[in-house]
Amino acid sequence: MRTLNVAMIGGGFMGKAHALAYAAMPMYFWPAPALPRRKVVVDLTEEAAQDAQRRFGFDESATNWRAVVERDDVDIIDICTPNDSHAEIAIAAARAGKHIICEKPLARTAAEAKTMLDAVVGSGSIHMVAFNYRRTPAVALARKFIEDGRIGEVLNFRGTYLQDWSANPDSPLSWRFQKSVAGSGAIGDIATHALDFARYLVGDVASVNALVKTYIPTRPKQSGTVDKLGVGGGNRDAERGPVDVDDEVMTMLKFANGAVGSLEATRNAYGRNNFLTFEIHGSKGSLAFNYERRDELQAMFADDPEDARGFRTIYTGAPHPYGDGLWPIPALGIGYGDTKIIECYDLIKAIVSAEQPSPNFEDGYRISLIADAIAKSAEAGAWVDVA
Ligand SMILES: NC(=O)c1ccc[n+]([C@@H]2O[C@H](COP(=O)([O-])OP(=O)(O)OC[C@H]3O[C@@H](n4cnc5c(N)ncnc54)[C@H](O)[C@@H]3O)[C@@H](O)[C@H]2O)c1
Hints:
Structural class: alpha/beta
CATH class of the largest domain: Alpha Beta
Bound molecules: nicotinamide-adenine-dinucleotide
Helix content: 25-40%
Number of domains: 2
Order of helices and strands: EHEHEHEHEHEHEHHEEEEEEEEEHHE
Strand content: 15-25%
CATH superfamily of the largest domain: Dihydrodipicolinate Reductase, domain 2
Number of strands: 17
Strand order of the largest sheet: 16-15-14-13-7-12-11-8-17
Distance between the termini: 44 Å
CATH architecture of the largest domain: 2-Layer Sandwich
């Protein structure tokens, strides 16, 4: 069985999720398409890199991603750093002929995402952007039902991504609240996941009419480079610095195929933790999903007998997408890690088959175009066509 050596850049939250996926993927999906080997992990300081090496089971650690990208014994560059370094690393990786998985959002702006797309086109690199939520089996099942025509023509998409980890005004001014690093706030960080659902399940977005809001204009400055996502509650006594990104976004959507929709994303919705949802109405039925109940897809089929009509709960398991690699009994529990394991499986399969996976950098670029249009629309107070 072929081995593919992975260099992972960034050993924070996503570093943990991706390392888990490399280790567990062959245990879930066997025979594995190839064996990912955790070769080298890179972080900013020796201490952080060595810590990540030991914790995440890599052979080596390093602090200079440029040297790592050039290494002959590395096959895959895995970008798990904050958004401001995605483009630089991905472009260098493409030039070095490496396969690439890059965390979302692909970049801070569509223009930056385009430079990454241009770099991978013709490079021979397999490329993927890590919108892992679509790898939840219930979401993949929704796509299958739509493709099979089970809900007819899609009329309407309603997406939300509501969190509350930054609702506390004293949670720190991490990189996620700095435009120069993150590019945007709720738009790039979480709305893009819901946009990936919208494109995956309905199709491309043609125009948007949005508003955005920043509720908390300053936050206490933080030490260190890792965003702890509000854990620990923050430091009310620390010096405060300005937040220059959005906390909340709402938008109406017009899809190219005539469907309509709406999307709301905020990190200030007390009581909502990872409330990533969609509801889709079709001419012959409806589908609904809530990531907080991620084993379940709610489905209503209008051709059910009249006295049995209504939403039914389908617990995903062996008969459903990716079921052969997961647990044999439905409702044993899909976790966040499972979505990353499935993502890793699809990446490795794509590399072995030499066929681009989805979502790839083209998809990441198209989502950045929608994100840019949302920001432009909010500023203009008008409908904006997606470029
Ligand atoms: N797919 C998802 O569900 C999901 C969830 C969280 C974050 N993300 C994305 O993953 C990326 C990383 O987010 P995170 O939550 O893991 O951040 P984090 O703050 O937890 O970790 C980032 C790590 O990268 C390191 N780093 C920063 N710059 C570096 C550089 N130039 N070279 C090497 N290491 C560097 C930091 O020291 C830190 O260890 C972001 O793009 C984010 O949007 C995706």
